[in-house]
Design brief:
The chain is an alpha/beta fold. Helix content is about 35%, strand content about 15%. The strands form four sheets. Strands 3, 5, 6, 7, 8, 9, 10 and 11 form an eight-stranded mixed β-sheet that branches. Strands 12, 13, 14, 15, 16, 17, 18 and 19 form an eight-stranded mixed β-sheet that branches. A two-stranded antiparallel sheet has the order 1-2. Strand 6, helix 4 and strand 7 form a beta-alpha-beta unit. The radius of gyration is 23 Å and the shape is globular.
Length: about 600
Amino acid sequence: MAITDGRPPPARESDEPAWVRCERCAALVYGKRLARALHVCPECGAHTRLTARQRLDRLLDPGSAVALDDAGGGLRALHDPLGFTDTKPYPDRLRAARAATGLDEAVLCVRGTIEEQPVVVAAMDFRFLGGSLGCAVGAHITEAAHTALRLRIPLLLVTASGGARMQEGALSLMQMAKTAQALAELDEAGILTLSLITDPTYGGVAASYATLPDVVLAEPAARLGFAGPRVIEQTTGQSLPDGFQTAEFLLAHGLIDDVVPRPALRAALGRLLRAGSDSALPAFEDSGSPQRSEGAGPGVGTPPSRQAGGEPLMSGGGGGGGGAGEGKPTAWDAVRLARHSHRPTAADYAAHLLDDFHPLHGDRLSADCPAIIGGPGRLAGRPLMLVGHHKGGPGLPARQAHHFGMATPPGYRKAARLMRLAAKLGLPVLTLIDTPGANPGPDAESGGQAFAIAENLRLMSRLPVPIVAVITGEGGSGGALALAVADRVLVSENGVYSVISPEGCAAILWKDPAAAPTAAAALRLDARDLSRLGIVDGVVPEPPGGAHQDHAAAAALLGEAVTAAFDELLPYEPEQLLRDRRDRFHRFGLEEEAP
């Protein structure tokens, strides 16, 4: 299929191999026969992986595909925001992926038709760095959503990903929030969104735009989850049942709408697109880039509190950058302090800071989660809703009782329930974040952990009350982000915020868990680097030696910072809050284009 956009054609994909051995049944299949069968093994029905271009060729009407413009608006995606190097520099990995795939990035976005129904399609390609979600992919997915919004036609997302891109650190994590916001805008506009899950779809993609659409379809045996099965088995020591996280498993657990074999996909999507069509809407015409709200919001990578030469909301030196200069704390020092077992928990902060705090329990569906606490209270006489991670006391039994602060799906749903209550009552929301990450247990996966995280991202992006989030210790991956889509995001002096743990990053990229200190520095996860990258709006000072040394003093410092943030936000009307929050996350990972 020729995708027309006025630019030179992409590199030609290699011809089909003469013979292909099926990975499932080991049958030797003639390459052209496999292609005629849509790359479904004729012997056992296994669905082999397709490239993004093959996917578009098999879904769209012939000759209908037109590539979308770049993100535009005078902005472009950052390509190496951290200056990341593991066993080789990140730019070298990008160049190799581009040469191997003929693609600029891990997603290809077009507009076209399926059975004569107009649609915008974003198809991911697993060959490009495992289909990982980085700043450029986030920009393309968001632009696809904006195009669907502008043209008022449905959006189809075809996913294949190992998760967020480690080499872009917390900025890749921000793309989860950005894309969730874009889908929330389509919801509010009444525009149909569809998702096709292909094998595999994991991590940050599963916990954002893959699972948020109105209808979620999957190919047979496609796997989807937040944590991969190997991680779950290694972490919990449990053996997983056959078919765990497959499309059939997800359908049986009520998490997706249908499992559709590849030959039936075009017809199924055509039916859904016709059901979502509106004859009163005009046929689509591409009239340029989507309209942005008045005022571009914060400068690129610059928190709102630092406009016009202003200083950060609060200062504290940070927990040390990635270097190891004389007397300067390292990123690994910050990781160790963030994990200190005697750091104050959300319950400790509530006891020191809030009057009339009353914890509320349960998700109103199935369970309560001890890793999330929350309820109404008063900070300096001002009513608010507190939601926070609770790691438990310093002893191992207490930590185990609170799942080490790793929420289960009922925890995320409880947090969402409390935030909706806050919106109903007009209460500002304070979230306190301290978690190693999402829960690695099999029950969390079968309960729809990725779906629950994604729903929180969408909810927080459009919550019409002020939200202040503080990373008080560990800000681990999607489990942290699920409470951090806020108007102001602060970090404690010895807090960290990362797309993956240093140990996990070291094991994957360095092939050596002992390289965790090196990975911590490369991830730019401490307060100083987070502030420099614009991911946080301010650093909350801690008592000498760290928050674990003096809980009361740490709470007083945090209370001052939070009060100052709310003083700034409370005069805003809901429309301004939502506009500024959208702009804040939309611009993560983008930079001004050179004139």
